[in-house]
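thread from #wetlab-drylab

HS: before we spend reagent money on co-crystallization trials with S-adenosyl-L-homocysteine, can we at least see a predicted complex? here's what I'd submit
DV: go for it
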Amino acid sequence: MEVKKKDIRALTKDQLREFFTTQGDKAFRGNQVYEWLWQKSAHSFEDMTNISLETRQMLKDNFVINHIKVDQMQRSTDGTIKNAVRLHDDLIVESVLIPTATRTTACVSSQVGCSLDCKFCATARLKRMRNLNPDEIYDQVVAIDNESRLYHNRPLSNIVFMGMGEPLMNYNNVLKAIDKITSPEGLGMSPKRIVVSTSGVPKMIKKMADDDVKFKLAVSLHSAIDEVRTSIMPFNTTFPLADLREALQYWYAKTKNRITYEYVIWDGINDKQKDVDALVDFCKFAPSKVNLIEYNPIDDGQFQQADSRAIDMYVKTLEANNITVTVRRSRGKDIDAACGQLANKS
Ligand code: SAH
């Protein structure tokens, strides 16, 4: 029976060094291979040209490199690119490159599908299959960095964990991926340019604060009234707003990092004065800002974006209370690449 080969990228640098010494080689060989795997994103052992043929063969006999494969790339008229990414077990996730005048942002997935059941999100209709490994998250970022250089003549500048899945339900792997992304031995990006977006898992928000993470936090709030939030984000019954609020207070006390609330205003759901008043209240306990995001319809017409009057009311009320608010336009809608549209359609 053939033994299943181990994914070489599951090894730490020290483990790789140790592997080479047990093979009677120099530990330094481990550093060279590690550099190929991470800094140079080698897809195969053949790429490792400063490693002898014999050693490459030995590595092939012992390990695999489970690199992701961009199966399909779609380009929007606004420059947005969506990748359908095939994993080693043939599951597919999507990631998106979003260019603006000054930056290129990668929107990456953290899980295959999602276990949450947000009524307005297309990914929610795919059941959660599994968590992504740290290297599968890292590879999405590398693929987008390459596309950014190729199509927009500049490296990737920002990363948002707003693709498929709930990052805080795959916390350890997301953290490991971010370590690699920010490490000089990986991509060397600043953690300040990374945003982790969560539906709000209180226990994990506190854990992040305890872990002293340096990236930014965004919370998909959509309503600051329990009853309303539960109707569109059913897990709010398990993690009600009072718990979320307490966790966010803890986060701010520890990190001094402002929180961003993502918020869509829907017709007849959260478009009244009482809704914005509740939001103002919710924003008061820790420094925060509100991103009003455009709704991207996901087929059945159950949700409609509120009209501009409702948006104006939100903006005015928030500003009158000294809360920073931005109104964000969607990108890549023509290729189903916008927030909440990732559903492996093709
Ligand atoms: N699970 C994480 C990250 C994925 S969703 C989270 O909930 O934050 C990324 C963002 O897209 C979230 O703010 C989410 O609320 C928003 N979103 C989901 N469906 C959407 C839709 N159809 N239109 C606009 N935004 C949507």
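DV: Residues 120-121, 162, 166, 197-199, 220, 262, 264, 293, 295-296, 298, 339-340 surround S-adenosyl-L-homocysteine (CB under 6 Å).
HS: ok that's useful, forwarding to the group
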